[in-house]
Predict the 3D structure of the following.
Amino acid sequence: MRSVTLLAMRVPFLDLPAQYAEARHLIDPAFQEILEKGAYVLGQWNQKLETDMAAAHGVKHAIALNSGTDALRIGMQACDIGPGDEVITTAFSFVATIETVVQLGAIPVMVDILEDTFDIDPSLIEAAITPNTKAILPIHLFGQLAAMDQIMEIANRHGLIVLEDAAQAVVTKQNGKYAGQFGKCAGISFYVTKNLGAAGDGGLLLTDDDEVARRAKSLRVHGMGRERYYYDEVGYTSRMAELQAAFLHAKFQFLNQWNARRAEIAEIYQAGFAKAEFGIPVIRKGNESTWHQYTIRHPKREGLMAHLKENGIDSAIYYPVPLHLHEPYAHYGSGAGSLPVTERVSEQCVSLPVGHHLTDEQAHHVVKTVLAFD
Ligand SMILES: Cc1ncc(COP(=O)(O)O)c(C=O)c1O
């Protein structure tokens, strides 16, 4: 293996202090006001964030929650998914996708993914449908939407609910429609590393359905009904703190600008790697990726990552082990070899820095360094 050490230049995956520096003129006064008033819970900043997020996604309701995981769990519960219901999804995701299904007593049914876009292969969905199937849970991985036209057509024909795992796809479009406008509801994550990252954990449920919205609002405060300390169902404690909502609302003002810069960095990579022999991201027709990750497939991934590290470039694996091969979830799947595309992609995928903090020079350095490895 040849490993050429190029000019030293650090290329970090994330630069959170730089994000804060851009938005601090909005964050600091909002924090001061919240702290001086002592208005910590479900106040004006939750309302502002919810109003603006609903508008940005073109849906009627946005419900701010504690995390993207809670958005999925509360969304599913509000759609009446419960014990014994089967939910068709994939094993190439963050664990929260199936963890929440299992927590509700439902059964994750994991089918294989498409080799180029890494999301659910719609041609495999119908064979996985049984009399117990209640929902399809596509994952909008790495900032682009799953094949929603095909998924919605199958779901409508079989009377199934569609829930979108939009954790990685805040304000992301397909054929002019946003994540959250396809399924009955969609869960967004504001985890620190996301395109719109909180100062800790945060999430949001999007829905056009009044009843789902009503239940989600109740479930985030223990299932409380109209009257204080009277409960309609078993719920959670999943409010978003006002400080967090204000932080996110401030950063949201920059999201379009930041996503546009991500697209420029991704374009430098796409052009630079156009003739490379490894797999580069494929964007589905009609999709506008928000490039949550820029993920390539490389047959010598571990060697490439070591080479990048030597040259100051961060890289990361999303995700090294598919969900059906983790001990707590293994009995929901059929073991190694059962999801060949998922398993192959998990062995080869590696994500490169694509945040808006990168300069063109850094992006070109990444291209040169990757291409220098063979
Ligand atoms: C695909 C996917 N689903 C669900 C989640 C869960 O979101 P959170 O970390 O905000 O709970 C994440 C975030 O990490 C994710 O990437």
Notes: The radius of gyration is 21 Å.
